[in-house]
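Troubleshooting entry. The earlier prediction with FE3-S4 cluster gave an output that would not parse, so I re-checked the input for stray whitespace and re-submitted. Clean input:
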Amino acid sequence: MYLTDAEQRMLDGHDGAPRAQAMAVLSRLGEACGADRMVPIASAHLVASSYQIAGEAGIAIYGDLVAHGARVAVRTTSDPGSIDFARWQAFKTPADYAARQIVIAELLDQMGVIPTWTCTPYTTFNVPRFGEHLGWSESSAVVFANSVVGARTNRLAAYVDLCAALAGRVPYFGLHTDAGRTGDILFEIAPDLAAAFEDHYFPPLGYLVGQVVKDKIPVIRGVPGATFDQLKAFGAASAASGSVALYHMVGITPEAPTVEAAFRGEAPRERIPVGLADITATMAQMGGGDGPIDVVGVGCPHASIDQMRRYAAFLDGKRVHANVQLWVCTNTTVEQMARTMGYAQTIERAGGRLMVGTCHNDCPLAAWGFRRLATDSGKFAYYTPTTVGTECLFVGTDACLQAAVTGKVER
Ligand code: F3S
């Protein structure tokens, strides 16, 4: 693998031990994946910022790097942590657990990481541009950056993302190349679905697509239109049920003005029709039950200000049921704006709680003893049974908020 003089000097230790280690890891990754060179990156995003993911091993790794003077070389942001830093006691987080997350926060701070604590860094302090190369992890952020923005990043693993941040480079293969961004499978929205497409179909469509394509690149034709939040929801679901890191939505995402452009002139390997019955079946698979619930989770990926406005508008003048916790996940920047605009107060007045800088899937919730969670998120629906340990019921956003008020999901 070709290295520039600067990269070779980094590998040889002239820029310190942490960057030498980072270059060694990236070089080996590149050789294993057929890269012939490195490419400079504009930014990195780290998934092992959470104690749940990093654990004690992560603290040891970060501690060693900091002791050797590690500093990130490019703009680098943190994924959600395992605690809400301002309210962890209110979420029944054990004090010793919170203390370990705070140690990780201090170590990341010493390396120069921007403490965004969000899976939507692209809305705040890490906004990528079309065509930029990135070194990101966090499946929902990677798929958004690649698909909606048209930036270029592979789906990096924990710690490889930090190597990218330290070296300011990644090996040039996969989604960094033009050829690696070619669509594989064409999903064609059937007329019955196109004619009745609703907001809450985006997560199940993403979930269905992810299950089918796994790590291939889907191209979806026939979606009548999509907002920022709908694309976010679709991508997060596809990246959870499969390993989708890039999708093309014809006429909507920047590299797919036409089907031909999305496939770069090649023929799709496969064509799959998707009708209303497929969406209904997928929603049942994601959690089709009804009846009483004890927790509602919205804001996965972290809620935008538009979503906060929507929650507040629904909850204004209503009251969350006494047997239900309504948790709204978002980041500190959106929380502050939502507070400035009064949305946060409206949600809290109704009995909802803001869960900021973390989420249901990232923090220890055993103390609550929840049994049934309702969510509007395809990613929560995928992970909840294992990470939260509860049954999951998938419904649209308004139905979720309604369930929080009535205490039960009604279909
Ligand atoms: Fe973000 Fe947690 Fe969902 S990290 S994408 S809110 S599972």
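This one parsed fine. The mean pLDDT is 97.
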